[in-house]
Amino acid sequence: MSQEKFKVSGQDVVKKIKEIIEEGNATRITVEDEKGKVIAEFPLTIGAIGLVFAPVLAAIGAIAALVTNCTITVEKKD
């Protein structure tokens, strides 16, 4: 398993997560605030990307709007 980290502004978190999901090889995504506190952490499975995932993105967007910068950590299959 490999990890990749992205630093994004709070307003771009949902957009970046959608890009990561579209790539299709991520297994887990963690979103942290600028102090390293975990805001959201969730596994990605084929079934979760559809209907179940839309409310998760909405919740992350609402939380991320309250912080200036976030770090997104993506775990990927090798």
Structure report:
The structure is a single chain. By secondary structure, this protein is of the alpha+beta class. It has a single domain, classed as Dna Ligase, domain 1, CATH 3.30.1490. Helix content is 29%, strand content 38%. It has a four-stranded antiparallel β-sheet with strand order 1-4-2-3, with helices on one face. Helix 1 packs antiparallel against helix 2. The termini are close together. 14% of the residues are buried.
CATH topology: Dna Ligase, domain 1
Radius of gyration equals 12 Å
> What is the strand content?
35-45%
Mean pLDDT: 82
Distance between the termini: 6 Å
Summing up helix and strand content along with how strands pair, one would put the structural category as alpha+beta
Number of strands: 4
Would you kindly provide a brief summary of this structure?
This protein is of the alpha+beta class. The protein has 2 helices and 4 strands, in the order E-H-E-E-H-E.
What is the topology?
Layout: E1 2-9, H1 13-23, E2 26-33, E3 38-43, H2 53-64, E4 69-76
Antiparallel strand pairs: 1-4, 2-3, 2-4
Helix pairs in contact: 1-2
List keywords for this structure.
4 strands, four-stranded antiparallel beta sheet, globular, 78 residues, 29% helix, 2 helices, Dna Ligase, domain 1
